[in-house]
Description:
Two copies of one chain form a homodimer. By secondary structure, chain A is of the alpha/beta class.
Amino acid sequence: MSIPSDPRELIAKARSGDRASLARLISRIEYRNEETKKIIELLYPLTGKAQVWGITGPPGAGKSTLVDRLVTKLRAQNKKVAVVAVDPSSPFSGGAILGDRIRMQKHTADSGVYIRSLGTRGRHGGLSHSTKETVLALDAAEFDVILVETAGVGQTELDILKLAQTVIVVLVPESGDSIQVMKAGLMEISDVFAVNKSDRPEADKLVRELVANVGLNPHDEHSWMIPVCKTEAARDIGTDALLQEIENHQKYLEKSGKKAEKAKAFLKEELFDILIEAMKSSLEAVLKTEGGVTLLEQLYQKEIAPYEAAKILSGQAD
Amino acid sequence: MSIPSDPRELIAKARSGDRASLARLISRIEYRNEETKKIIELLYPLTGKAQVWGITGPPGAGKSTLVDRLVTKLRAQNKKVAVVAVDPSSPFSGGAILGDRIRMQKHTADSGVYIRSLGTRGRHGGLSHSTKETVLALDAAEFDVILVETAGVGQTELDILKLAQTVIVVLVPESGDSIQVMKAGLMEISDVFAVNKSDRPEADKLVRELVANVGLNPHDEHSWMIPVCKTEAARDIGTDALLQEIENHQKYLEKSGKKAEKAKAFLKEELFDILIEAMKSSLEAVLKTEGGVTLLEQLYQKEIAPYEAAKILSGQAD
């Protein structure tokens, strides 16, 4: 049983349930070359059926344990589930997600679960692009639910969450103070709150604060009131109710037409990403030519100013 | 004493030492419109003399206290100092820098110190662009040293540090574990390490680990060995030695020609930023036209695929 190298065959085999082919397909997407384009063109018409959920929260909030519980419950409903864990880009908060992946390995024997980590380091804007296209591949491979987990500590991670239809923000009682300051930011991205480790002191206080803020900042002009769920993922408490709220949000999206709206906003971002990536490659090439080197030198010597130089460079790249 | 509205007069007044004009100038840069371009063209030839230092590290490492000490010492050398504090983009780690700014207020009566916070929320890639241009304004306003402080938790913050000639990474003994995992990432961005709160247990262990890693991964083919400084910013211990190492690094950059090399790499990024920002505005405009709306709808209906749609969109934007 070899892994096909032709993109069309590879996609067909990944869709038939062959995990090695799916893994290879995603690796090719991550690798990002001319072939990626071809793969996406082939995948795209096959997509659009999966539910995409985003999960974020501060390090140590128990996101992975919660994801683990949700995966188990979705499997009990006989749904195919994929988990895409996006590792944070910062050197200061790495490692945690990778470590947690090991815990998820109990699902590896289950052919209805697929888990993939994507790393951010050295990728800059490219990561959100790769993540989006990985989700396309998983959607085409007929996963019912794709869970995208990020550490949520930077703009890249927040950008990535735009691909999700439903965003779950996981908090812990200790995070109460910091959310005080920036609660508006949380309200913007969250569709469902989970207050995890809710057996700890201060959990009720955090829940009350969140509920009060949800009341002040209702989503979508009052039509979706963000629920606040108390969970203890480690003991599987409150997780059924959380799952129910996520499913309610999905139903709400369908009924209200917001699903299409979100999908279009996401596609717009995707178009931008494609064109920015193409422009960067083209500019890199121009800056290596004699004209490009001279231009950079003139800019450095302050013989020309940045916007003027950018205009010239853009002309050279055409 | 009114604030001039003409960019040329505003710049002249900011350069003459008028703080209200400098603040207005930076606000106009942050605002980002057609005028920004004009301002930068005027500022650019006036820049190139300032030293730009970047300071990063995990939340709670004591970066602001350290910055505070460095500012005081630089003032004692009669140098004009500006601090640009870039607030983290994540809702989970906001606030800290803003709170610390209050502590810095003791410098506000000193006309040789200027402190400015820049926020990231909702700005996406635009923040690093605004930060770079704010540094240009401060450089033109003849500050001798510009300290750019970031929380260092995401790609945006790491991008911002590219504008610094010397990057100081501040760690605390407790961060020992996490750096184990990603130490390569720290080595890449750091020119000087400060192990702060070094009276705590485990400080020597962290110093030893860092020194060992510096030995394994020397900067610039052995020519700059990253120093590891023990500091207790709260008690002003070790901070003179840290300052000395930063000054040594600046001398090294001058002598080795690396300063010009770094400046050119930074200018290249600046050109990319300018062109990407311009492309985004142009695409946003096209997507609002009838043709743009139709294209997005066709993409949503899967009548065309993303790369094909991007190509069409790019043609419409030309």
